[in-house]
Design goal:
The structure holds 2 protein chains of 2 kinds. Chain A has 3 helices and 27 strands. A 6-stranded mixed sheet of chain A has the order 11-9-13-18-15-16, with no helix packed on it. A 5-stranded mixed sheet of chain A has the order 12-20-19-14-17, with no helix packed on it. In chain A, 6% of the residues lie in helices and 47% in strands. By secondary structure, chain A is mainly beta. In chain A, strand 19 and strand 20 form a beta hairpin. Residues 1-11 of chain B have low confidence and may be disordered. Chain B has one domain (15-277): Cupredoxins -  blue copper proteins (Immunoglobulin-like, Sandwich). Chain B is mainly β. In chain B, the strands form 4 sheets. In chain B, strands 11-10-13-18-15-16 form a 6-stranded mixed sheet. Classes of the chains: A mainly beta, B mainly beta. The interface between A and B is large, with 46 and 47 residues.
Chain lengths: 408, 278
């Protein structure tokens, strides 16, 4: 009998698979601050009742092979919604198309289940009145990671050090007025018949932000020789052209959750509505530049807008603690006219300070003196330095530590 | 002793003879409105759907184009050279076409480009078809523009904003009644979809439930072999897609520029159909 119990237990253990549970709330009275400071009414998927639905919606993340269970609670009076798992090739019952599976009415729960397929980048969005509900904000990303959850593009794929998602969409602020968002539903019809206004987008978004909102929020901060993986997603109604700086040596390696049969060595990636691309970038030298994200109208092909994502790739700092020295800071960084170097000295010490380019060439005269104990500050005139990355190093004759800074 | 026999495949070239008529008429939109339209039809009777030509890579197509309209028209096959010609009202043009590779070609009226093609005069030649082949001839129209061009007017393409979106001349839900467009099959079938954008807008066709492999791409040969669920398709671009369904069900295929799943400003009466796999 003990042997039988042991065998049964073993079978259950082997058969068990990891489970990912997701809880999302559908809302139609969300608020979103746009680049001009105005507050826009949005629909969306929220993680709880106390926050406005973020745009894009919360990331759904699982490992390949996981069982994923989504509990979708619709708290949006008048409106019914669904979750379509875009690109995940789920079965019909879980596909989120109202007339072919089911929809979720106000204060009801809907449950979606699927087994995480190929590692890659996917989407989820509402498929009720989808032209209106997507523009209103009901979309979010899905990342399926390799079976072991590692920083690898897929099982046996490319390892990466950093990961950045650029999730493109647009806002037409007229579509976010009550007259459009409070549309009627005809639950008895096979299709909701909904009037759709002319589309004139006035905000062009990356991860829900545009223009000055992108500064210091969405950027690639990385180090030389790191492998950086970009996930490009377009859920808007414009086409996108994402242009990487040539110095990043971009390689397009996957699309729509599948590896490309041939890696595409190109700096320019076109991403159309519903598409996803994976791009690896890497540089052996510092890069201070921008990725351009262009938006084009699908009806005429006319250029509509360009947004920029900052790229700041630096030589890794040498983090070696100098005896007697602590709290070393550089400010401002990036700098324009001068760099304030602050640190604390425990016991009097003689230090040599050097500023070199990333090629190791001395660009300012070496500065050397004896510092007494206590808080110290050295101001370096950087006004004549050309723009770029520099390394400032400190040595007491035995040990060297360095930090990098950017001159604009 | 092992004998290795040389295997020789012998292809028999067939000649396919087709007659197509250039007809002008009125297209009935999904909401019942009518707009001026022109198409290459199998008879002298106008219909929105252009003739779909299927052939094997070894076949030779002998095409007779009869201009049943009251004005001169042109005829050309995209991605070929030497076929461009014109045909006067009431006249007949003979065209010989062949291809050595599987692929999709767009035949169209090149005169006053893009106006005549936009009015509907653009169809598909599918090379390398099998018994599970489907045709998606994608078009978009701004009703007022069809009427204006049809009346000899001038339009500014920079201001184009189409309000009707069709596959083989039909919009949702009528597309599903077109057996050449609506994919029906079984798990494990090898299904070929010949898809061309003969409209003036760009589209991004998304499959629910399945990924497809690109067997041929008219503009990006380097994309052959990619397996995707969403296929951007530019003006006068064509794809041959291979679908091998792994699961049963009824799943939509639609433009993910969701503006294009409207008709006359109403959702969802545009470029949206379903696939049925049993």
């Amino acid at each position: 009998m003990r042997g039988l119990i042991a065998i049964l237990f073993f079978v259950v253990f082997v058969g068990a698979e990891a489970q990912t549970n997701v809880f999302l709330i559908g809302r139609t009275l969300g608020e979103k601050i746009i680049a001009n400071g105005d507050t826009l009414r949005v629909y969306g998927f929220a993680p709880n009742l106390s926050t406005h639905p973020p745009i894009p919606a919360p990331l759904i993340e699982a490992n390949q092979g996981d069982s994923v269970h989504i509990d979708f609670w619709n708290v949006s009076q008048l409106h019914h919604h669904t979750i379509h798992l875009h690109g995940l090739d789920v079965d019909q019952a879980n596909d989120g198309v109202p007339m072919l599976s089911f929809d979720v009415d106000h204060m009801e729960h809907g449950w979606y289940h699927f087994k995480a397929p190929h590692a890659g980048t996917y989407l989820y969005h509402c498929h009720v009145g989808s032209t209106l509900h997507l523009q209103a904000g009901m979309y979010g990303p899905v990342i399926i990671r390799p079976s072991d959850g590692s920083n690898t593009t897929w099982d046996g794929g490319y390892a990466f050090d950093t990961e950045t998602m650029l999730f493109m969409s647009e806002f037409d602020t007229f579509w976010h007025t009550d007259s459009i968002l409070d549309h009627e539903h005809d639950n008895s019809a096979v299709h909701d018949s909904l009037p759709v206004p002319k589309y004139n987008p006035d905000y062009f978004l990356i991860n829900g932000l545009s223009d000055h909102q992108l500064e210091d929020t969405i950027e690639l901060n990385s180090k030389t020789d790191y492998v950086n993986y970009f996930r490009l997603v377009n859920i808007g109604y414009c086409s996108n052209k994402v242009v990487f700086p040539a110095s990043l040596n971009a390689q397009v390696i996957d699309s729509d959750g599948r590896p490309l049969p041939v890696v595409d060595l190109t700096d320019t990636v076109e991403v159309y509505p519903g598409e996803r691309y994976g791009v690896l970038v890497e540089s052996s030298v510092p890069v201070l530049d921008s990725i351009e994200v262009h938006y084009f109208g699908m009806m005429t092909g006319a250029a509509e807008n360009v947004q920029y994502v900052k790229v700041d790739i630096r030589v890794p700092d040498q983090v070696v603690e100098l005896p007697n020295i602590s709290g070393l800071t550089l400010a401002p960084n990036p700098t324009d006219l001068e760099l304030k170097v602050a640190f604390d000295v425990q016991n009097e010490v003689e230090l040599a300070i050097r500023v070199v380019g990333v090629d190791g060439r001395l660009v300012l005269s070496e500065y050397s003196r004896t510092f007494p104990s206590g808080h110290q500050m050295v101001i370096i005139d950087t006004s004549l330095l050309p723009g770029g990355q520099y390394v400032i190093s400190f040595t007491d004759g035995n040990t060297v530590t360095s930090k990098s800074f950017i001159k604009r | 002793m092992v004998c290795v026999l040389g295997i020789q495949t012998i292809f028999f070239a067939n000649s396919i003879t087709k007659t197509i008529y250039i007809n002008a008429g009125q297209s009935t939109c999904v909401d019942g409105k009518q707009m001026a339209y022109k198409a290459f039809n199998p008879t002298a009777v106008f219909e929105e759907r252009n003739v779909q030509v299927s052939m094997e890579v070894t076949d030779t197509l002998l095409l007779q184009v009869i201009n049943n309209d009251s004005v001169e028209h042109g005829f050309d096959v995209k991605w070929t050279v030497g076929l461009r010609d014109t045909v006067q009202a009431g006249d007949t043009l003979n065209v010989v076409f062949s291809s050595t590779d599987l692929g999709i070609f767009i035949y169209y009226d090149h005169l006053s480009y893009p106006n005549n093609a936009y009015m509907g005069l653009a169809g598909i030649i599918a090379v390398g078809t099998n018994s599970n082949t489907y045709f998606w001839n994608i078009k978009d129209h701004e009703l007022a523009w069809n009427d204006s061009i049809g009346a000899g007017g001038v339009v500014d393409w920079l201001n184009y904003y189409p309000d009707y979106f069709t596959i083989n001349g039909l919009s949702n839900p009528n597309i599903n009644s077109d057996t050449t467009a609506r994919v029906e099959g079984f798990v494990g079938d090898t299904i070929l979809i010949y898809m061309a954008n003969t409209g003036q807008a760009e589209h991004s066709i998304h499959f629910h439930g399945y990924h497809c492999e690109i067997l041929s791409s008219s503009m990006n040969a380097g994309h052959v072999g990619r397996i995707k669920d969403t296929f951007p398709i530019k003006r006068m671009e064509g794809y041959v897609l291979q679908l091998v369904p792994h699961q049963i069900g009824e799943y939509p295929v639609h433009d993910h520029n969701l503006l294009s799943i409207t008709g006359g400003g109403l959702y969802p009466f545009g470029m949206f159909l379903t696939i049925l796999i049993q």
